[in-house]
Amino acid sequence: MVPPVDPLFWGLGVAPLVLLLVTLVGLRWQAHEAASVGMFAAVLIGLTAYEMPLRDLTVASGKGVWDAVFVLYVIIPALIFYHVIDRANGFDALREEVKAVTENELFLVLGFGWVFVSFMQSISGFGTPIVVVAPILLALGVKPVYAVAIPLVGHAWANTFGTLGVAWLALDSTVELQAVLLTAVAAGVLLWVVNLAGGVTVAWLFGRKEAVTYALPMIGVVSLIHGAGQLLGIYVWEPAFANFMAATLGLLALPLLAKWAPYADSTSALELRPAMRDDFGGGSAGGTATVATDGGVATANGVEIPETDDLMGLKLALLPFGVLAAVAFLTATLDPLAAALNTVQAGLSFPAIETGYGVAVEAAAPYSPFTPLTHPGTLLLVSTLVAYAVYKHEGYFEAGPTESTSLTRSVLSTAIPASVAVISFLVMAKVMDHSGQTLVLAQGIAEVATPASYGFLSPLIGALGAFMTSSNTASNILFSGLQQETALSLGGLSENWILGGQTSGGAIGNAMSPGNVILGTSAVGIVGREGDVLRKTIPWVAAVAALIGLLIVGFNAIGFLGVA
Amino acid sequence: MERIEFETVAFVLMAISLPLISLGSTGSASTLWTVGFAVLVVGTAIPPLMRYLESPASTA
């Protein structure tokens, strides 16, 4: 049973989201202030209109706080990871060493903000790619708001089959697919479009139309490797490894592309470079970086940049990222190791609940157990410890009591407001889910749709799920069943394309999910500027969702990959 | 108190609410989950309240 799916209940269901977006994006409130408003709206509407008993509302809220543990255990280790590298001047070293290979800023922004972040997504998750890449872009002279928005857009395509295909596996296990391979191929085709749109958008953010024109050959080659590679992996190998194969090949292609004539020179000739800091002066060592005047103020700014001779080499600068990639890959692919590590788990119990409208959730004991040893937070901490030990041994890290206190203060001053925002946001999402508000939103869209318009709207539902949960996987678990049932009941719709639209929408929705945005803003020290980041990513999500929606309608109409 | 101190209080209240809600709701101890929910509400209310209550001088 569900609450009435009518304009009143749909309007009440969407109200918390509208309030969140108005305060966060429209009024530019800080994330923890806006999330609080959204949470209170969801709680009040759940308690009254959606007839949720107070105890059940409390249970849903408690689950939301628990869900936040998974995100907070990325935010805090990621901040420590960032500060340890930063205090050893690792980002300065990385920038100088990379510039020795190429000084082409647009190439570097695409290389890190689209290709490297995709590789990180292929082996990791929970927003780890964003917190790793955003500070690198900052060190390359990208303005802080852009340094967060670019990897959010650049990594989106890799969400479904990345992290060794966890979101795809969730979809496959949630619904009984009529044609598993065809649905995976449909998702792969749509995600190729998302990948291409990601590359073009990263170039556009860097330098608008001129930069897109200039970067098109590189974007074409990389997108061919990413998109076709992923499709090939799905078709001939195994969906779980398709993204890893494609993203790795894309990364390996970068050194070759750097030698390609169009990208061998600097891009300083491009007149419009809105993503880059004018006062950065190319980021040369030995100077003083000043505060950015547009795009935010980061904690990493305004510090003395050491002389080049004092900086570590490329191997040491890449060490933390290499260790992170290796540890993530090992824990994800060595099943006996993962099984052993996953025996350590913790969780809290919650009772069954049921609203006055019959929306019921079973008891869970434990609810969503937390496996810390395979969680990205632990992988980040292991990488940080290795980097800290090596940097200290090599004399790049001075760690006295004053330094430790300063590092702790830096981490906490960013982590606390970010954590408050994440908790409020996830409580809001869980209350909306358990009260039936999220279901009414999705069913409302499905009820007013025709077969053609539903094909167009299916990515939007997937994106809504990812916005609510910051997870492609969770979006697929939430809405795959609804999407499949709606496709069947409307008739004339290919299940392959509708579910492909669901998971593709879930992938792009990650680019605007407040949880991921907060991870990015906390990593570059601009907590409170989440609205500015969303102003850049929400239009991209809307445009790409519309584009793949049109493709679904078109492919369905011509019978490509099957019609129901 | 500085802004970060208020935010720390909000975070601690939210964290405290979790075991109270879980233990209270599974053990049918209504006082426990009610206190847990109240603590969560107070913690969540702090950030928007600060927006209107804090004086410019106390902003971190």
Note down, in words, how this protein is organized.
The complex is a heterodimer of chains A (564) and B (60). Chain A is mainly α and 564 residues long. Chain A has one domain (7-558). Chain A is built from 20 helices and four strands. In chain A, helix 5 crosses helix 8 (162-174) and helix 15 runs parallel beside helix 17. Mean pLDDT of chain A is 87; it is low at 282-304. Chain B is mainly α. Chain B has one domain (9-52). Chain B has helices at residues 3-26, 30-53. Chain B is elongated, with a radius of gyration of 14 Å. Chain B starts with a helix and ends in a 7-residue tail after the last helix. At the A-B interface, helix 2, helix 3, strand 1 and helix 14 of A face helix 1 and helix 2 of B.
Integer count of domains of chain A: 1
Helix content of chain A: over 70%
* DSSP summary, beta strand count of chain B: 0
Percentage of residues in helical conformation of chain B: over 70%
**Gross geometry of chain B:** elongated
* Order of SSEs of chain B: HH
Query: What is the number of beta strands of chain A?
Result: 4
Count of domain modules of chain B: 1
Individual helix count of chain A: 20
Low-confidence stretches of chain A: 282-304
Radius of gyration of chain B, in Å, reads 14 Å
Biggest sheet of chain B, in brief? none
Offer a quick outline of the entry.
The complex is a heterodimer of chains A (564) and B (60). Chain A is mainly α.
Summary tags:
heterodimer, A: 564 residues, mainly alpha, two-stranded antiparallel ribbon, 20 helices, 4 strands, B: 60 residues, 2 helices, 80% helix
Helix-strand blueprint:
The complex is a heterodimer of chains A (564) and B (60).
Chain A: H1 7-26, H2 31-47, H3 54-87, H4 90-101, H5 105-123, H6 128-139, H7 144-155, H8 162-174, H9 180-237, H10 239-258, H11 314-333, H12 335-341, E1 346-350, E2 353-354, E3 360-361, E4 364-370, H13 376-393, H14 401-435, H15 437-448, H16 451-469, H17 472-490, H18 495-509, H19 514-523, H20 530-558
Antiparallel strand pairs in A: 1-4, 2-3
Helix pairs in contact in A: 1-2, 1-15, 1-20, 2-14, 3-6, 3-13, 3-14, 3-19, 4-11, 5-6, 5-7, 5-8, 5-9, 5-10, 6-7, 6-19, 7-9, 7-19, 7-20, 8-10, 8-17, 9-10, 9-18, 9-20, 11-12, 11-13, 14-19, 15-16, 15-17, 16-17, 16-18, 16-20, 17-18, 18-20
Chain B: H1 3-26, H2 30-53
